[in-house]
Amino acid sequence: MTFKMRACIALSGITFLSLVAAQAQDYQQKAPPYSDGTRPYGERVQTDGKYKFKPPKKGDQRGPCPALNALANHGYLPRSGVGTVYDFVWAMKAGLGVAPDLGSFLALYGVFVTGNGIKFSIGGPTNETGHGSGLIYSHNIYESDASIFRGDKYLYHGDNYHLQMFNFGPFYKNRTRDYPKDLIIDFRLARITHSLFYNPYFCCMPIACDLVAAGNYIFTYSLFANFTYPEGVVTRQVLRYFYSVYPLDSDGDDLEYKPGWERFPSNWYKRPSSDEYTFAAFLLDVIDNAKRHPGVVKFGCNAGKVNSFVGIDVGYLTGGLFNAATLLEGNNLICFWYQILQAVIPHGARSQLLDVYAELDKTFRLPAISGLGCPQLTKYDKSLFDQFPGYAEQYK
Ligand code: HEM
Ligand SMILES: *[C@@H]1O[C@H](CO)[C@@H](O)[C@H](O)[C@H]1NC(C)=O
Ligand SMILES: *[C@@H]1O[C@H](CO)[C@@H](O)[C@H](O)[C@H]1NC(C)=O
Ligand SMILES: *[C@@H]1O[C@H](CO)[C@@H](O)[C@H](O)[C@H]1NC(C)=O
User: Using CA atoms, how far apart are residues 41 and 230, in angstroms rounded to an integer?
Assistant: First the structure.
């Protein structure tokens, strides 16, 4: 399988679909080499020396993403919390075993929708990032309601970036040792149901909800897990370290959340370089989740009252290019995300996006976006969401 292809957003080249299918097969057929647990499957992540944990200093940016906060606290990302696309792609790979194709998408979306096209902040705005809002002020764009442990913006007086013990505590206490994947997936259903019933301004927007918020749960088992086995184990310690929850007593039931103090557990193993978490593997997880809870991914918002959800049809949103029935087929969801990324950035920034992608490709060898074989999106009608106060007004 060849990864070395030129980046260019057009309709040519081998289809990304076949690339995804091949990667997916690779991923599933990977023999579990140490499934008896005698040797760790993953690669130990360095947490000393240059990569020692240091809590943020005054002025350092920290925000809603526990992974990025931890990477910055260990110096995998600049400790200031502001970095370039390259910094992010490199840090996610080095610290968490995220493959550069997935890392690039996350970072490109970050830099073009919350940054200045060159750098972005994992917290709030900074002088260095100019007009960029940072991740904290990207509600419904990058940051979303019904995330795993952070509170919904409306439910906590505008605070969308602190972990809430109300969400974390019961989940944590549900198990004493490890947290199986299905428990984590099912928790998303509980969180969405909670938001529908308690948050009059609840919204589920493309990318923020179906990629980032869905990713919150998926990444917890696919990336935070200690990769002793190919599937990884999420223990209590893993949850506490990555989510910055510190025990106050020895039995660990009395807990304190320290904003911005996310850490890597010591003696923790990321996914190995032979099994980095690719965009294809992520897509499989998204589809897996959708099959377990059909209908969870619905775009739309509550209409200003609790339990008043109005859905927006994918067909209307994309001028008929995609529909709910086919969105989870083939590579359609990845196409949809790439096309929204292009649609939401200013026209003038599109060639800049290609340049940045080509630049990343030199180091990280990315699959060609052209290879996606995506149908051309001619209309992305975000104004359909303007009818909802949760999107248009104070909780934007
Ligand atoms: C450039 C890369 C990334 C960006 C810009 C980013 C951004 C964000 C944002 C904006 C949120 C808040 C989402 C919400 O409120 O639903 C978030 C949450 C989260 N992110 Fe990231 N993220 C990135 C990469 C990652 C990676 C590689 C992981 C891997 C573990 C990860 C794990 C999480 C988790 C688990 C949450 C949920 C936090 C909670 O609800 O307590 N993120 N991220
Ligand atoms: C940002 O710029 C403003 C205006 O020039 C200045 O007052 C402020 O100190 C700067 N902040 C930082 C953190 O450098
Ligand atoms: C633990 O999780 C299960 C499965 O999601 C759920 O049915 C149960 O109510 C939870 N228990 C507690 C104490 O939260
Ligand atoms: C991860 O797994 C390895 C191998 O079983 C173990 O030695 C290590 O303590 C675990 N680390 C964490 C943080 O659970």
Answer: 6
Listed residue (247, 241, 187) closest to 213, CA to CA: 187
**If you measure from the C-alpha of residue 67 to the centroid of ligand 1, how many angstroms do you get, rounded to a whole number?**
6
- Residue 43 backbone phi and psi in degrees, to 5: -115, 130
For atom 3 of ligand 2, the residue with the nearest CA is 127
- Whether 290 and 296 have beta carbons less than 8 Å apart is answered as yes
Handedness of CA 223, 228, 230, 231 (dihedral sign): negative
Lining ligand 3 with CB less than 6 A are 170, 174, 183, 186
pLDDT, one tens digit per residue, over 37-46 is: 556 789 999 9
Q: Is the CB of 127 under 6 A from ligand 2?
A: yes
> Can you tell me the distance from the alpha carbon of 219 to that of 234, in angstroms, rounded to the nearest whole number?
11
Residue type, 234: V
Q: How far is the CA of 82 from the centre of ligand 2 (A)?
A: 15
Residue where the block lists tokens 């030129």 = 6
**Residue 10 per-residue DSSP state:** S
Closest CA to 334 of 281, 277, 283, 278: 283
pTM of the predicted model over 0.70: yes
The two structure tokens encoding residue 34: 């140490």
| H/E segment holding residue 364 | helix 350-364
Task: Render pLDDT for 318-362 as a digit per residue (tens, 0 to 9).
Answer: 999 999 888 988 889 999 999 999 999 988 898 999 999 999 999
User: From CA 115, how far away is CA 122, in angstroms rounded?
Assistant: 9
Nearest to 167 by CA among 212, 213, 211, 227: 213
User: CB pairs under 8 A, 24+ apart, for 310-319?
Assistant: 310/387, 310/388, 312/384, 312/385, 316/381, 316/384, 317/206, 317/380, 317/381, 317/382, 317/384, 318/377, 318/379, 318/380, 318/381, 319/377, 319/378, 319/379, 319/380, 319/381
CB neighbours of residue 57 within 10 Å: 8
Task: Assess contact for 352 and 108: CB atoms under 8 A.
Answer: no
Q: Which residues pair with 270 in a beta bridge?
A: 43
